Amino acid sequence: MAITLIVADEPDGLADDLPRQCRVVAPDDLLDGRHLPEPGAAPGVTVVNLCRDQRPLSFGYYVSLIAEARGYAAIPTAADLADQADERLLRSRHAPVDRALAGLRRQGERLVLPRRLFVALGRCNKPHLQEVAEAAYEAFGLPLMTLQIDPIRLRLLQAVAEPLAGLDPRQQRLLRAALERLAGPPPTPRPFRRAPRLAVLVNPDDPLPPSKPGTIVRLRDVASSMGIDTECLGHRDLPRLGGFDALLIRETTALQSPSYIFAETAAQLGLPVIDDPVSILRCCNKVFLHERLKAEGVAQPRTLAVRADTLAAAGEALGFPLVLKVPDGACSRGVVRVDSPAELPVAGRRLLRRSRLILAQEYLYTDFDWRIGVLAGRPLFACRYRMVRGHWQIFRHGQDGSEEGATEPVPLDRVPPEVVSAALAAAALIGAGLYGVDLKETAQGPVVIEVNDNPNIDVGLEDACLGDALYERLLGHFLERIEAGEERAAVPARTVGSIW
After folding, report:
1. Structure-derived torsion over alpha carbons of residues 262, 263, 266, 270, reported in degrees to the nearest 10
2. Is the pLDDT confidence value at 191 over 50?
3. What is the pTM for the complete model shown?
4. What is the dihedral of CA 427, 403, 277, 197, to 10 degrees?
């Protein structure tokens, strides 16, 4: 039997004779998991959130957010509540209600419209305005609201959430009838009509973003041609994440950064996300990567994980020059070359202040590194990343800024097969997301330098060989996961009486 949980901090506005499938619980009970059905005990749980304060990051907001994270259906959703704080987003939801109001004009009779219409879970007390009530419920998702209508122009002026405690007896009866319909047998689900929504996390202050603004524009253009709505989010938009179907992170990732919080939140909400938090955790720690490659026999330069007391021994084992790396370095930062035994203690102590373990690796100079982009276990692109002229790394950082070596796109069919095979083997040890695998060619064969989550993709560089097809593959990957319901079942458009 499906169960409806009514979460209210002021339950006095509820009728005593609720349907037997309905339970009234306090916000703390839901947040702490008390008095709730055991997983699998009911075929479906719907949470009707009637908390007074539903502003983003309030207890009422978390009622919906956590309900969704636990696999319950939430009315309203966390996205509905987040949008209530943004006037622009609210205005964008007026259109279906305006269309329903305009449809009244086509009925061929002059109707007297009220300036205010109370709606409870998509139901109203005026039968001739039921279609308007349903449209408003589907658009805004608020369980209790009053529509303010312009009866002359047939336009919605505002949809205002109503508190449970303020209902009059007639409105309470309407709510009870709506709850009975909600707790009744579920109707046949309506098809998922809304265009998939992809959130793209960007950071204008990122000095070396994985995709420049022009590339984000190209991505959005291709997404639009595929019927996908995209929107760029910033760090303050975390409360809105539940309103999207997937997340693509296009800022430099790190464990102690908003990007990881976004990835973790997306995973908890069941959204397909690139990069997922597990991939970020694994790729952002070179010690993990070294141990993983070693355990699976994937070729890499001779490498040792060292502590302060084993630093000297690493120099003796690897010889000079050698390279020291902090585990969480990125874009050539936290990576130093040590040319002699005398330099080793100074360079090592400096890096060991940041991490109790660092990597010591044999120095292998090549004119370029291969970068093989891998998406879901398949090669996506290939580039040669050249070293900065007169320098031993792809990046050279200085007080006046950063300098980057040349990027040379290469068609995948012109990459040595053993390089591609090594890249795919390394990426498979991390996950099934989007990775950039860096390799060097040596006389003994290719060796993996590292596997990067959040690889660079930019117009004219990584996309030079495939063009728009690269973005189509990436976006198609998201579509497949959304439509297959890999992370969570797609929520259909709201239906009066049930959202299943």
Report:
1. -170
2. no
3. 0.59
4. -100
